[in-house]
Every structure is written in C-alpha cells, then in structure tokens.
Amino acid sequence: MDKNFTKSLKVVLTLFLVQIISACSSTHSLPSATVHPSNTADINSYKYLIGAGDVLNIFVWRNPEVSGSFVVRPDGMITTSLVEDINVAGKTPTELARSIEEILGTYLRDPIVTVTVSSFVGPFSEQIRVIGEATEPQAINYTQHMTLLDVMIKVGGLTEFADGNDAVLVRIENGQQKQYEIKIDGLLKDGDISANIDMLPGDIIIIPEAWF
C-alpha cells in the first residue's frame, strides 16, 4: 500500500474520531460556589466559632467517663462515648456546652459541661484569604482586632511584581459582596499608617501583578 495513502488514511481516521468524541461530549457550567458569610459584622462583635479540624476539650462535671478531647470531623461533627454524632461546627464554645448539656440530659441527671478549644482552625467563613502577589498567599485564621498590617506580616509582604496600591478587599456585607480599594504599597513601603484598616472574618484580599 502506498505510504502517502496510508498516512492520509490515518489523518482522516484521526479527524473522524475527534469529531465523534466532540459530538458525544459537551461542556457544562458548574454553579458558583455558595457564599457563607461570617456572623461578625464589626470588630467588636467577634466570637470564635468552632470549625472542622478544631480540637475540643469537653469536661462533664462528675462524669469523667464522657469527658475527653475530641477532633471535629470534616462534616462538623464529633463522636462521644454516649452520643455518636453531635453537630458542633459554627457554634461558640459556650453555645456548644449548652447544647451538649441538653443532649446529655437524656442520659445523665443535670449535666454541667465546659468546652474549651485547644487547637484552632475554625470555619472557612471565618478565615481571611490572601491571593495574588503576596510572598506566601494563604488562608489565615482570624484573630480579634486583626488589621491589614497584621495580615501582610503573616503572608510575608508583597512580591517584587506586586501592584499593592491596586489591591482589592472583597467583603460580604448584608449578604452582598462588596469591593474596596486598599493601598498596601502605601502601608508597607511608605509607612502610611492611615492605609492600615481593620480586617473582618471572611475577608478576601486580591493583590494584582504590576504592569511594567
């Protein structure tokens, strides 16, 4: 068989197969991620919420057999010796203590519960995310009264390619996503302390690359 004919036949078959595959497949759009806004509306109303990965120390007075240390599962639950699944994510330690007292009341008489957190992760809705031209882009656990300067120290500042004065802060307010201009170059390079702002849980900082 002629080599050129064989080569041409292979090309035709390849194109035919590509057309079949294209006809059998289609591209679908996935829905946008669900937004879970933080419960903190201002810096003075912040309360720590328990999240997956947190380590909880639960003490039940006079009942050491049901007390202990528990890791919050990815589904936001913990398992105790009396109750297999207790939903703990999104609650404050005090709220969880009252909830566990109510649950244990089925098995124990007038239980008194104390909950402390020994390893902090918290819900994603409470973390601050820094993306773009930060030295170490990452998600940061929020700490009460955290400021933009604190966040930038955590991520190691800006890269040499960053356009810090065109950075944007994305924040959910009253269920609506809003964007604010922030001047990171002014804060870090010029020492303009007026550019330092209070951060809130759930904030996203986007740092673009400079155009040279």
TrEMBL record:
Entry annotated with the keyword Membrane: yes
- Tagged with keyword Transmembrane: yes
Q: Can you tell me which family this protein belongs to? A: Belongs to the BexD/CtrA/VexA family.
Q: Which Pfam families match?
A: Poly_export, SLBB_2
Membrane topology according to the record: Multi-pass membrane protein
Q: Please tell me the species this chain comes from.
A: Colwellia maritima
What UniProt keywords apply to this chain's record, in alphabetical order? Cell outer membrane, Ion transport, Lipoprotein, Membrane, Palmitate, Polysaccharide transport, Porin, Signal, Sugar transport, Transmembrane, Transmembrane beta strand, Transport
Domain named Polysaccharide export protein N-terminal is located at: 45-117
Its principal location?
membrane
What are the boundaries of the signal sequence? 1-23
Query: Where would I find the SLBB domain in this sequence?
Result: 128-207
Where does it live in the cell? Cell outer membrane
Q: What is this protein called?
A: Polysaccharide export protein
